[in-house]
Amino acid sequence: MFLFQSPPQTSYDLRFSIAGIPVRVHPLFWVIAILFGLSSSSLIHILLWVFAIFISILIHELGHAFAMRRYGQRSSIVLHGTGGLTIPEQISWGGGTANIALTPNQEILISLAGPFAGFLFAIFILLITIVMGGVITLTALFGIIPFPIAQIPNGGDIVNTLLITLLWVNIFWGLVNLMPVYPLDGGNVARYVLLQSDPWDGVRKSLWLSVITGAVVAFAAFFVMHSTYMAFLFGLLAFQSYQILQRRM
Questions:
Q1: Same domain, 195 and 98
Q2: What pLDDT does residue 230 have?
Q3: Burial of residue 84, with CB atoms counted within 10 A of its CB: 0-12 exposed, 13-18 middle, 19 or more buried
Q4: Is 103 in the same domain as 224?
Q5: How many independent structural domains does the chain possess?
């Protein structure tokens, strides 16, 4: 999927490592994060949005990376213009290289580890809010989805804005990532679940599920949530899944 491929390396990449896991941040990541934050009312809020996206996507990808390590698979992380990737590293085998063979259940757990790392981080934020004497309320996101709002009375605008943004990115986009649409984590989970129940036709069924779900979410995003970005994203992912189906026929 061209939207989710690792971008070429540049001299402007930010590089570091966490617990032995190499991380590369492509400059386009910062550009897209800033564009997402332009709807904010001030430079401080834009920077808070960029920080929240960076931390949240990094935690998501670290969830995948640590799960891979649990099964003996080394990996590296790339943050790019459309999110992040955790890329498994090949091992030396004979005269060449090969990937570590993982079972379907291991693949499922690795896929789930990313969104659930974000959910755990959101729970941590809510607990910190409570410990600091803050208040947690529920609001209706897009008028239909219950969503927690964390506020610390003496925290000030910057702290409370950061808390709300972190919860938004980790909970809402974590749930979005679990949609059974390729190449999101939910799409990978659906693929391996269906492959176990139907080894011969599981991939085709998962692609049809991706097409239908992507189209439904795109429709709901445009007409119910009034989100052009989500409508475009899921419409494109549904179309890409349909293209893969056509090539398999």
A1: no
A2: 92
A3: buried
A4: no
A5: 2
